[in-house]
Design brief:
This protein is α+β, with helices and mostly antiparallel strands. Helix content is 25%, strand content 31%. The chain contains four helices and twelve strands. Strand 10 and strand 11 form a beta hairpin. The N and C termini lie far apart (173 Å). 25% of the residues are buried.
Length: 285
């Protein structure tokens, strides 16, 4: 039975589908109304997608800004400060040490006779000064008398210096007819000059002043020179002045020193001279 298509208006030979536009010949039912009066759009239908209504921002107290994280303080200022403090302490300690070492010697008192360890040498020593000695029979002997750390009289005799003095004596004998006899040309003078050169190599600050002179020690003829040098007390330097004396006795050659800081040398000289002039060699059995 032929039906008229409600869509294209043509007469279809089929009962359900239009043979012309292929659409349904059954009348479409109107869509049910959506509650609220507005028709819900078909999911498959054309048209723009619904948009979500914007939500107005709520008002309220402002959020506090995060506090800045405190950074650790650098440590180097503390190290620098500690270093400066340490330097100050060291310098103060050095100053105190130098002042004590280079200070004036005490007035000598209670003089008494002391012997070297080898019993070869006797010398007068103030009882309020420090006396020390060491030695070995036939090898060496040493005697030290200290008024302060830097004011001292020091005697060093040994067989090695004795051998050097023998060479000096032999040289003096071979040249005794070639010029006038002077302390410089004597055996003691030659020995003294040779010991001075050796000491200059050990202490570049050592410098002799004036001319070489004659001096006897413990009954032995000798030669001496005045000198200046520099000694270190910790980190600080102290200018020194003194006498160096060379003499020969028996198997030993002797180097004798009397010295003090330059500022105390004039005051210490009388005491040093008395100690040196009191020295005696003891007879050996």
């Amino acid at each position: 039975m032929a039906k008229r298509c409600p869509h294209c208006g043509e007469t279809s030979d089929a009962d359900n589908i239009c043979t012309w536009c292929s659409r349904s010949l059954v009348a479409e039912q109107p869509a049910a109304p959506v509650e609220g009066g507005a028709a819900r759009p078909s999911a498959a239908g054309p048209g723009p997608a619904p948009t979500r209504p914007s939500v107005a921002p709520t008002t309220g107290p402002a959020r506090p800004k995060p506090e800045a994280v405190p950074q650790p303080r650098p440590l180097w200022p503390y190290f620098v400060g500690a270093g400066v403090a340490l330097v100050v302490v060291v310098l103060v300690a050095q100053f105190v040490a130098v002042k004590a070492a280079a200070g004036p010697p005490p007035e000598p008192a209670d003089w008494g006779t002391q012997q070297s360890k080898t019993k070869l040498l006797s010398v007068l020593v103030p009882g309020n000064y420090k006396f020390s000695t060491s030695g070995s029979a036939g090898t060496y002997e040493q005697v030290t008398v200290k008024a302060t750390k830097l004011c001292r009289v020091y005697v060093d005799g040994n067989a090695t210096k004795g051998a050097m003095s023998d060479v000096s004596a032999a040289t003096a004998r071979m040249t005794e007819d070639t010029g006038p006899a002077t302390v410089v040309r004597s055996a003691e003078g030659r020995f003294h000059a040779a010991q001075g050169e050796l000491h200059k190599r050990k202490d570049p600050s050592y410098a002799e002043e004036g001319q070489m002179g004659e001096w006897s020690f413990a009954g032995m003829p000798g030669a001496y020179s005045e000198y200046a040098s520099v000694k270190k007390v910790g980190l600080l330097a102290v200018r020194m002045k003194g006498w160096r004396l060379s003499c020969m006795g028996g198997d030993y050659g002797y180097q004798v020193w009397a010295e003090a800081p330059a500022t105390q040398w004039e005051e210490f000289q009388p005491t040093a001279r008395k100690i040196l002039e009191s020295a005696k060699l003891n007879p050996q059995n």
